Predict the 3D structure of the following.
Amino acid sequence: MTILLSTDDTEALCSMSEAIESLEHSYKLLAEADAVYRPRSDMVVPLKPGEDYWLATMEGAIRSLGVAAIRLRSDRYVEQVKDGKRSAIKWAKEPGLYCGLLIVYSTQTAEPLAIVCDGYLQVMRVAATSALAGKYLARPESSVLGIIGAGFQARSHARAYAALFPLTEIRLYARSYDKGAEAAAELTEELGITVKAVHTAFEAVSGCDIVATCTTAQDPVLDASWIDPGTYVSCIRYYKEIGCANDGVFDVYAAHPPEYGWQAYRAGTPEDWAQGSEGGDLYHGQTLPESAVALHDVVGGLVNGRTDDQQRTVFNNHAGMGTQFAALGKLVHDRALEQGIGRNLPTEWFLQDITT
């Protein structure tokens, strides 16, 4: 049977701590050449100034786990100005709804094992990877976390760091103070940690052990001069949230593999592309510093992470890798079988007697 899993199903099947552990194992396997990925690929259709349609795919396989996976995302992508700042939103059908699917295959039989609505796993795998990188790049005793952002990713990052570090305080800054205060109140109750909304990004960052930028911003939200010695920073959109002009402040810079790449294939003419909402390469015209190290090499022990308590470290957590979805897809598939969660679909529906 092939299992169909909803976002609610996956939330019941995988905790944040389990996701971090699963991803750590997958990164070690990648360092050991037991896993493979293909760079994220986007097809972009410019629609009008500041608006595109995107179809994005990411693939990965892990030999020892016996799975391969593809993640597909279908988005309308719109730039907007909110609270005086440029940002971007994406949606499917209507704002507030999204369309992301994860298909997990067996590498032994080549049949589909699971079809997963990926919303919960998608947000979790980004935050879990930021926290995993922090295990190697942050000081273990880190207790104060500063977050810029108040949406899905910001909240998930709070959960991820709380699962791995002895946090006693979280500061949260959002362009809308009311939205930040709402998120802070909910996280305080959920995590049992004091989470307070602040009025400026500087207040959120200054004096923190860990800083996480979790925004859809189109302009920088973090000034590198605010980052104290010994701080670890994770960014989900480094090229926008900080920018390469600040690379020099960091003693250790980790990212997904520098050769990873990301190609956006675009319909229309160069004039059409200029009207679209995003650039066409992974780092949007920016290049990684020569000193950048790949996260899987750090996790696999092939290169050093933090070696000094005074180092400023950063993880450029942009785009991600298909192996993340292979690992988490395998985890929720196996748990679903054990617990009888999900809808069973006849595998025969997805097989045929005509060659592919």
Notes: Residues 119-137 form the longest helix (19 residues). The CA atoms of residues 46 and 52 lie 4 Å apart.
